[in-house]
Amino acid sequence: xxxxxxxxxxxxxxxxxxxxxxxxxxxxxxxxxxxxxxxxxxxxxxxxxxxxxxxxxxxxxxxxxxxxxxxxxxxxxxxxxxxxxxxxxxxxxxxxxxxxxxxxxxxxxxxxxxxxxxxxxxxxxxxxxxxxxxxxxxxxxxxxxxxxxxxxxxxxxxxxxxxxxxxxxxxxxxxxxxxxxxxxxxxxxxxxxxxxxxxxxxxxxxxxxxxxxxxxxxxxxxxxxxxx
Length: 228
Known about the structure:
The chain contains 9 helices and 7 strands. It is α/β, with parallel strands linked by helices. The longest helix is centred in the middle third of the chain and has 15 residues, at 96-110.
């Protein structure tokens, strides 16, 4: 990242290429908004136009990264910003719920993922983290695999292939992943072969285990022994 330099981008403040299911290439872009700029966008529609332009250009994921420290006033509900150890009303006065509604509607209705950072340094760290995450296909990450369920990519520019956490893995898969030399990757093949049947997996012969892609005689014998 030491070679990074600021350039003018047509669809936000950062954009890069990434990888999706099966190695498919995707494009990601995002916009960084400080509070003042974000509040202007409530009225002038500039941000909405930018999102529409990115959709028309075919970006697969879009992010809104807000930056700063603010809160709702406990007395008036207006947005307040941190000034030293105290809080002051932001000028122009803006109701906190209006800003929240804008961000929530972008997320729920527009498919724009919202991130928040308290400082420029944190903003950079979050963009770098996004970049690194999207350099691997979803199936190549390990973080969610304890509750991971594969799902085919869904159509549309926003959130392609969402619902990776759509359901709990089958009992067959949860058992298979614990067997010798099986793990998550081969566990999916085992689950598919036995059609999710634990009984079928437990009663399978050594030769039947070798019919599964990626499982040889050595592993089949280990698994059969473990089952017994």
